[in-house]
Amino acid sequence: MKSCRLVGGLLLLIACAIAGVAQNSSSAKALSPLEQSLTASEKSLIEAKKKDDGAFFKRTVSDDFSLVGVDGKLLQGKEAVDDLGDADLIELTAYDMKVVAAGEGAAIVTYDAIVRKKPEEDQGPPPRYQHFSSVWVRQGDAWKLKFHQATAAHWGDW
After folding, report:
1. Whole-model pTM?
2. Using alpha carbons only, how large is the chain's radius of gyration in Å?
């Protein structure tokens, strides 16, 4: 009798847990078309960074693209595009991505990431936890990357 109550109680507990998970999943906000499009664009940028895909960068960035690296240096034009890719990148795992409209035909994508890169000879690896921001602008029928910035999110791992 006690074992039946125990099993019944466990089944009830499991059923409640499943119902709670299902409710949380269904109450998650659906992404708008803008959010879907720019989230996909940013994820493509991340994959291109991992592969150092220069062709992707050339067709994706605006003519006046600029970048602020985790070191705080402003790069513009070809120098900025060249700095986007990184053959020494071991890991770039993005999480908590958000898209914010910034007027007609512009939006900002922000996210946190875990970054692992091979250390350079004269310095150690970059901060492992970084925050990224990208400004995307609509040019014709395509979204172009106009600005990108990496910021150290945790100072203790320099």
Report:
1. 0.75
2. 21
Residues 19-56 have pLDDT tens digits of 444 444 445 789 899 999 999 999 999 999 988 898 99
**DSSP conformational letter for 1:** -
Q: Which of 127, 124, 125, 131 is nearest to 150 (CA)?
A: 131
Residue 121 dihedral angles phi and psi, to the nearest 5°: -60, -45
User: Residue 9 CB: number of other CB atoms within 10 A?
Assistant: 10
Cα 23 to Cα 28: distance, rounded to the nearest angstrom: 9
Which residues partner with 110 through β-bridges?
A: 98, 133
Cβ-based burial of 50 (10 A; exposed 0-12, middle 13-18, buried ≥19): middle
Q: Give the angle subtended at the CA of 68 by the CAs of 60 and 117, to the nearest 5°.
A: 85
Query: Measured between alpha carbons, how far is 145 from 59 in angstroms, rounded to an integer?
Result: 10
